[in-house]
């Protein structure tokens, strides 16, 4: 293939905004490729926003969801809930289940105490950081 033909195809690629072209002529294969520079938007400095620090509520320990999922208060549909309002719990005791992607994740108590508040309803969708329970020491 002649150089003039190659230049002609290169110009055609540019006009049609092609990044690659393969030409077969007389049992010869010529492949042309070009890199296209992508314009980059200018960066604008962003002022740092302080993230809120989750503090322990004055009236107890907050147990939050470690993931997005469905909150279940009991191990099965017709079973008794793991805990109810006023129950005494021990560190490591299962409080509920959060189902995420068909996996049942047990949420346990981080300390000994009494269930002071149940913050979500059975079957409710919870987000990461949603308060599930409040435990009074």
Description:
There is one protein chain. This protein has one helix and ten strands; from the N terminus they run H-E-E-E-E-E-E-E-E-E-E. The strands form three sheets. The protein has a four-stranded antiparallel β-sheet, with no helix packed on it. Helix content is 10%, strand content 36%. With 137 residues, it is mainly beta.
Portion in helices = 10-25%
From the spread of the alpha carbons, the general shape counts as rod-shaped
Could you give the count of β-strands?
A: 10
What does the radius of gyration come to? 31 Å
Which H/E pattern describes the elements? HEEEEEEEEEE
Instruction: Please give the count of helices.
Output: 1
Question: Termini, distance in Å?
Answer: 85 Å
Helix and strand content put the structural class at: mainly beta
Largest sheet composition: 4 strands, antiparallel
Output mean pLDDT.
Answer: 82
User: β content, as a range?
Assistant: 35-45%
Could you name the ranges where pLDDT drops below 50 across 5 or more consecutive residues?
48-55
Ordered list of secondary-structure elements with their pairings:
Layout: H1 3-16, E1 20-25, E2 28-33, E3 61-64, E4 69-72, E5 88-89, E6 94-100, E7 103-108, E8 113-118, E9 125-126, E10 131-136
Antiparallel strand pairs: 1-2, 3-10, 4-6, 4-9, 5-8, 6-7, 8-10
Descriptive terms for the model:
single chain; 137 residues; mainly beta; 4-stranded antiparallel sheet; 1 helix; rod-shaped
Give a short overview.
With 137 residues, this protein is mainly β.
